[in-house]
């Protein structure tokens, strides 16, 4: 005879009561909570960054600066904070550090001014905020976040973006905050010697961060001062969603640094995410493939990528890239050169100056 549901229930209950107390407690013990996972990667620009061109003191300064940036993101993620808050915390830290071409350490335009760009993107909703041509916003990434969270648009520039900042309480500062003697001297050398921006800087100075948080959500953020001596209100890839910045929970988060015109034409950040989502490529394979294509077009630089499962990878075709990564498994590292850490595709691309520089013009005093 087949037992009725009620008979089976009563039988099971009786068996449970007959078990020793210790056995009953073992049966009722809740399952262990799986460990929370998170991962983050950061960058501070790529270019001709070699040991031969770096003093031990300068190298120590850059490694310490990268450590501070990485620590800001780790502090958010360890406490269960969002990837968005983590990448913003990293970029704010690097914007405030004069070692990097973003925020306080931004390069000067041809006219002797600072022109700042930034973008941030939420991989969960694919909402994004971007700003460009700023001269008075202390932390451009905070304004990009405000555009994403508080406005109906994605991309604001110049005076309109700064008006939006005032309406939403984003901190402004006097333009003199961004002045550093090293960046001013670079502009003078560029003009006096008729150099290209790359020849005078030897790197593409953008900062960025990508992360996946304990909830499995992704985010990306990027900030830059652009190119030394740039003219005509030129804007590169950093604030362009899909070129220098992109995040999608279905695939990855990307922040790029390099020759912005080529990264825009390739749609580097979105291209990497699309390859991962549609072809199943790993983060490293997708990043290397897209960077190779960008290099074949003539573009130089690199990317940082993080995937939903916590892969944090680098790919660059320059001799070095300021970079770092950490995760909940205990990994924590920073690197500068091509051979002292993860990332890099071989062989590195030989960078040749392009075009004929324009004639020098009178310089503006950056403090007036």
Plain-language structure description:
- The protein has 368 residues and is α+β, with helices and mostly antiparallel strands.
- The chain is built from eleven helices and 13 strands.
- The strands form two sheets. Strands 1, 2, 3, 4, 5, 6, 7, 12 and 13 form a nine-stranded mixed sheet that branches. A four-stranded antiparallel sheet has the order 8-9-10-11.
- A hairpin with a 5-residue loop joins strand 6 and strand 7.
- The chain starts with a helix and ends in a 31-residue tail after the last strand.
- The relative contact order is 0.16.
- Mean pLDDT is 85; it is low at 5-19, 21-27 and 353-368.
Put the structure in a nutshell.
The chain has eleven helices and 13 strands. By secondary structure, it is of the alpha+beta class.
What is the general shape? globular
Radius of gyration, rounded?
Answer: 24 Å
- The helix/strand order is HHEHHEEHEHHHEEEEEHHHEEEE
The N- to C-terminal Cα distance equals: 97 Å
Would you identify the regions where 5 or more consecutive residues have pLDDT less than 50?
5-19, 21-27, 353-368
Annotate the secondary structure layout:
Blueprint: H1 5-18, H2 21-28, E1 39-47, H3 56-78, H4 83-95, E2 116-122, E3 128-134, H5 140-150, E4 155-157, H6 158-167, H7 181-193, H8 197-201, E5 203-204, E6 206-212, E7 218-224, E8 245-248, E9 252-258, H9 260-266, H10 268-279, H11 283-297, E10 301-306, E11 312-316, E12 320-327, E13 332-337
Parallel strand pairs: 3-4
Antiparallel strand pairs: 1-5, 1-6, 1-12, 2-3, 2-7, 6-7, 8-9, 9-10, 10-11, 12-13
Helix pairs in contact: 3-4, 4-5, 10-11
């Amino acid at each position: 005879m087949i037992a009725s549901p009620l008979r089976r229930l009563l039988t099971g209950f009786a068996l449970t009561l007959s078990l020793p107390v210790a056995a009953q407690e073992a049966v009722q013990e809740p399952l262990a909570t799986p460990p929370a996972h998170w991962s983050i990667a950061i960058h501070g620009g790529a270019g001709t960054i070699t040991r031969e061109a770096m003093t031990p003191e300068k190298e120590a300064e850059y490694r310490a600066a990268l450590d501070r940036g990485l620590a800001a993101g780790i502090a958010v993620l360890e406490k269960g904070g969002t990837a968005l808050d983590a990448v913003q915390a990293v970029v704010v830290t690097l914007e405030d550090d004069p070692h990097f071409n973003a925020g306080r350490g931004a390069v000067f335009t041809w006219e002797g001014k600072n022109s700042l760009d930034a973008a941030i993107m939420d991989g969960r909703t694919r909402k994004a905020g971007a700003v460009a041509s700023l001269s008075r916003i202390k932390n451009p990434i905070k304004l990009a976040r405000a555009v994403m969270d508080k406005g109906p648009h994605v991309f604001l520039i110049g005076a309109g973006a700064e008006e939006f900042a005032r309406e939403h309480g984003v901190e402004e500062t006097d333009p003199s905050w961004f002045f550093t003697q090293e960046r001013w001297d670079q502009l003078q050398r560029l003009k006096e010697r008729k150099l290209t921006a790359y020849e005078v800087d030897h790197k593409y100075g953008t900062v960025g961060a990508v992360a996946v948080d304990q909830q499995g959500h992704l985010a990306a953020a990027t900030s830059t001062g652009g190119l030394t001596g740039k003219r005509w209100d030129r804007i590169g890839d950093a604030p362009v969603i899909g070129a220098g910045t992109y995040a999608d929970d279905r695939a990855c988060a990307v922040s790029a640094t390099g020759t912005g015109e080529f990264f825009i034409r390739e749609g580097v950040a979105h291209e990497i995410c699309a390859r991962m989502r549609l072809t199943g490529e790993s983060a490293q394979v997708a990043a290397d493939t897209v960077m190779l294509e960008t290099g074949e077009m003539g573009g130089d630089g690199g990317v940082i990528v993080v995937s939903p499962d916590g892969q944090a990878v680098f790919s660059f075709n320059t001799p070095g890239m300021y970079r770092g990564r950490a995760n909940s498994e205990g990994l924590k590292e920073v690197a500068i050169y091509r051979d002292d850490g993860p990332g890099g595709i071989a062989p590195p691309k030989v960078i040749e100056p392009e075009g004929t520089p324009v004639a020098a013009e009178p310089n503006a005093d950056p403090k007036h």
